[in-house]
Amino acid sequence: MLDGAEEASELGNYQLYLILNADYRAHSVSLPHLDGERWSRVVDTSLSAEEDFLDGGKEIELDPPDVYIANPRSTVVLLGR
């Protein structure tokens, strides 16, 4: 997890959470709780070409907010704000 609040940014204060799943099986990843903020998916390399890398402002809010299923051999980037 990276804390984006340490550097001034147009995004304001934010957190990045990186999931790297090199396994051949999917894994359920418990996400840290964010006070008053939510996790949104920005990148998931296991998804189709239209959905794997999302443009700014088009992130998809996670539901449920506390877990993410990382598919086999994938990289995931979540944005918390």
Question: Quick gist of this model?
Answer:
This protein has 81 residues and is an all-beta fold. The chain has strands at 2-3, 15-21, 27-30, 39-44, 60-61, 67-70, 74-80. The protein has one domain (2-80): Sandwich (Immunoglobulin-like).
Strand content: 35-45%
Main sheet?
5 strands, antiparallel
By CATH's scheme, which homologous superfamily applies? Golgi alpha-mannosidase II
Kindly report the CATH topology: Immunoglobulin-like
Number of helices: 0
- The spatial strand order of the largest sheet comes to 1-2-7-4-5
Total count of domains:
1
**Low-confidence parts lasting 5 or more residues at pLDDT below 50?**
none
Radius of gyration: 13 Å
- Average pLDDT level: 93
Shape: globular
E-strand count:
7
At CATH's second level, what is the architecture?
Sandwich
What does this structure look like?
This protein has 81 residues and is mostly beta strands. It has one domain: Golgi alpha-mannosidase II (Immunoglobulin-like, Sandwich), CATH 2.60.40.1180. The protein is 0% helix and 40% strand. The chain is built from no helices and seven strands. The strands form two sheets. The chain has a five-stranded antiparallel β-sheet, with no helix packed on it. The radius of gyration is 13 Å and the shape is globular. The two termini are 13 Å apart. The relative contact order is 0.37.
Characteristics:
mainly beta, Immunoglobulin-like, two-stranded antiparallel ribbon
